[in-house]
Amino acid sequence: MEDLRNLENVEILDHPLIQHKITRLRDKTTGTAEFRQLVNEIAMLMGYEALRDLETTDIDVETPIETCKSPVLAGKKQAVVPILRAGLGMTDGVLRLLPAAKVGHIGLYRDEETHKPHAYYCKLPDPISLRTIIVTDPMLATGGSAIDAINFIKEKGGVKIKFMCIIAAPEGLKALHEAHPDIQIYVGHLDRQLNEDAYICPGLGDAGDRIFGTK
Ligand code: PRP
Ligand code: URA
Fold first, then answer.
1. Ligand 2 pocket, 209 CB below 6 A?
2. How many helices (H) and strands (E) in the chain?
3. What is d(CA 187, CA 49) in angstroms, rounded to the nearest whole number?
4. What is the rounded average pLDDT of the residues 71-98?
5. Are 42 and 188 in contact (CB under 8 A)?
6. Which residues line ligand 1 (CB under 6 A)?
7. Contact 123/103 with Cβ under 8 angstroms?
8. Which of the four pLDDT bands, split at 50, 70 and 90, describes residue 116?
9. In this prediction, what percent of the chain has a pLDDT beyond 90?
């Protein structure tokens, strides 16, 4: 497979703090409470990188010493859009950085036989076209869920879209980039491959089940 690390609009974040926390996530003995906390912490660290191109505008501010021009975030409030369920686990981490952001939801689940995504819920902040949109899902496996979610956001008028996942399979990263070369993709770790059940190897298992303690 081509070197996915060099693709335009794809950033694989190799920060040691992110990698350390991903190792804790992978460990099958890590329990639900720690898992949840780690997912949020990683989302916050990834968000710090992913949001470095947010636009700013200068305002006047009076310091105790003098008045100066200083930047604040510009434009409409951003939209954080988790892909349900597992993407919800990353929402608070991003909202720590952007407390005033709006939150949309896209409900998708993968059919266990076909591995194809099925949509069951969609609600986005209005107007979506003027916002930076941060789509979150810890796992990018075949890429089907992310591709469908972004198709939906684009149909509703979304333009400036960033997708953040904690672990990606090469197959899913390639598929998502090919389907949506215009969006920015941020990956915590690029894993080896998918297995025959379309699970990521070595991965961390089922992210939704581990975040919510189901199964
Ligand atoms: C997981 C994960 C992604 C999807 C990735 O969700 O959170 O949304 O699978 O797989 P894909 O890239 O092959 O589409 P799942 O469908 O298990 O639903 P859940 O979050 O409700 O558990
Ligand atoms: N969804 C998950 O939660 N884990 C995988 O490995 C693949 C899809």
1. no
2. 6, 13
3. 11
4. 97
5. yes
6. 83-86, 108-110, 115, 117, 137-146, 172, 198, 206-208
7. no
8. confident
9. 92
206 close to ligand 2 (CB < 6 Angstrom): yes
pLDDT for 2 beyond 80: no
Average pLDDT rounded to a whole number, residues 191-214 = 97
Helices (H), the chain: 16-26, 32-50, 88-97, 144-155, 170-179, 207-212
- Bond into 117 cis (ω within 30): no
pLDDT for residue 180: 98
Please choose from 116, 122, 145 the residue to mutate so as to test ligand 1's pocket, defined by most ligand atoms within 8 A of CB.
Answer: 145
Please answer whether residues 84 and 146 qualify as being in contact, where contact means their C-beta atoms are separated by less than 8 angstroms: no
d(CA 141, CA 167): 8
Annotated catalytic sites, by residue? 110, 114, 206, 209
Which residue puts its alpha carbon closest to atom 18 of ligand 1?
109
Q: Is the model's pLDDT at 1 over the cut of 70?
A: no
